[in-house]
Amino acid sequence: MLKVLVSNIKDKAHGEWLSLPSDTGEKLAVFEKLTPHGEFGTTVAICITDVQSSIPNLKRYIHEHDSLEQLDILGSKIEKMSDRDAAIFSAVRLSRGERQG
Question: CA–CA separation, 93 vs 98, rounded Å?
């Protein structure tokens, strides 16, 4: 499971949760809610302000401006992982993170 809290960069205090992977309609629904006054067609700069995942420690590797497209791919891979694979992935991520800083 991978969920990200997507916020308008001008109003990070409010956001919408998006479960990944998601389809275009789900993303558009979130973007509409983040558009000022519901003005569809307005360009909205977004950022990721929180993360929930079934992979322990994954949150520390996902950053504010990461690509939703790439996170969608990651969400798809996480969905297919067994509990054992998820535990191994988490341990590898933690190990690499500790070595880097």
Answer: 9
Alpha-helical runs (H) found in 1-101:
24-34, 68-80, 83-100
Answer yes or no: pTM beyond 0.85: no
Q: Are 7 and 14 in contact (CB under 8 A)?
A: yes
The residue with tokens 């191994």 is 88
For the chain, the C-alpha Rg in angstroms (whole number) is 15
Q: What is the DSSP letter of 18?
A: E
> Is residue 64 over pLDDT 90?
yes
d(CA 94, CA 60): 9
Please report which helix (H) or strand (E) contains residue 73, including its range. helix 68-80
Question: Between 90 and 99, whose confidence is greater?
Answer: 90
Q: What is the pLDDT of residue 36?
A: 73
